[in-house]
Design a protein that fits this description.
207 residues; alpha/beta; Rossmann fold; eight-stranded mixed beta sheet; two-stranded antiparallel ribbon; 12 strands; 27% helix; globular; binds cytidine-5'-triphosphate
Amino acid sequence: MKFLISAGPTREKIDPVRFLTNRSSGKMGYALAEAARDAGHEVVLVSGPVCLEPPPGVQTILIESAAEMAKAIKTHAEDADVVIMAAAVADYRPIMTYADKMKKKDGNLIIELERTEDILASLGKTKRSGQRLVGFAAETRDLIDYAQDKLQRKNLDWIVANDVGKAGQGFAADVNAATMISAEGVTVELPLQDKKALAARIIAILG
Ligand code: CTP
């Protein structure tokens, strides 16, 4: 099968030297790409800026912004059997990017932001029969309720919910715990474990 996987953060430019981003390390998405490759699948990985090497045997496309990620994902989604959006895509970007480095002035600075495209929701609208869409929900409270809402709202087949409020797991850590919930109402509890082991479990459930 062909797996299309996104990983890492996006960068939304303010000016040539500044951007908005988040704490995603890309470790979960890269572990999923490696696990899918090891399970014998064809894998395309679309990655934001991370400190990880492109995995051998995986077609890796490096992007920066949410708009670039949307373009790359849509190009490769058409013939993908499984799409896993593990990337922490920015929900907002500055309305305008300054061509020159901004100079400071007295007083406060307000940067107006606009919504980026919700890539997963767009894929949910054009999903072809047989294709499976998997999203991630990182929450600090009401994990299962919010995850179930995302599952339905974005027309997903599975959602991987993880609690990012707990110290030492989730964002940037090497370990994670998750609850996988399917559109059919199946719930799989994945206890705290190495992200590579967790990725292998997730791929086995999807593969
Ligand atoms: N996602 C996406 N495009 C975006 C934002 C998020 O495809 N512009 C995907 C992520 O890759 C992830 C899922 O959607 O799989 C996360 O859902 P989202 O609603 O963005 O979660 P939050 O950013 O936590 O948003 P909310 O404030 O609604 O909780």
